[in-house]
Amino acid sequence: QVQLVESGGGLVQAGGSLRLSCAASGRTFSSCAMGWFRQAQGKEREFVASISWSGASVYYGASVKGRFTASRDSAKNTVSLQMNSLKPDDTAVYYCSADCNSRWYRNEASMDYWGKGTLVTVSS
User: Fold this and answer.
1) What is the rounded CA–CA span in Å between residue 12 and residue 16?
2) For position 2, what pLDDT does the model report?
3) pLDDT class for 52, splitting at 50, 70, 90?
């Protein structure tokens, strides 16, 4: 059974940091493009970051660029999202996802595996 399990969410004050992790199991994800998305209450799901199979190509959404850093450890089947300078607008459920039909991120619709999400709450 393929699973993506996010962890590391919680409550943090504005300006603080959190590190999210995503543990993949059920298959090897070393050749999959991975992504992070988020969904705030009452809003559509938003692209946060993507990382290619090798980790060499990383892209960020405009609202998080310069503050968030995505990385992966293929040997451990994990991906991480380091979030710095957090703002109240970053409050959302954060989802890890994978596209195992491509080594590079294509789009949200191409992601075929999703975690259940972890809640990040940033207080002002």
Assistant:
1) 6
2) 86
3) very high
